[in-house]
Specification:
Structural class: alpha+beta
Strand content: 25-35%
Number of strands: 5
Helix content: 10-25%
Distance between the termini: 40 Å
Length: about 80
């Protein structure tokens, strides 16, 4: 199945793109997706944590991805 991945902030620099389309196995969980990202983009290990949103809603690790989902990789934000 195909999904679209959007990268924000420092994650854009770490993966050298702001978006991509991936073919993944059907029934992939958010947790497994994170592992897949780290395997394909080892520089993501350089940040402590990041949030995942699926179709503009924050997602738990247990959520199963579906065809044509849009996944956002959101790094920690600091500011004041």
């Amino acid at each position: 199945m195909k999904i679209k991945v959007l990268f924000f902030g420092i994650t854009t620099d770490l993966v050298a793109t702001s978006n991509l389309e991936l073919g993944v196995l059907e029934g992939l969980s958010v947790s497994s997706f994170k592992n897949l990202l780290k395997e394909n983009y080892p520089k993501l290990e350089n940040i402590d944590s990041y949030a995942i949103a699926v179709n503009e809603e924050y997602a738990s690790n247990e959520l199963l991805l579906k065809e044509n989902d849009v996944i956002a990789v959101i790094p920690p934000v600091s500011g004041g």
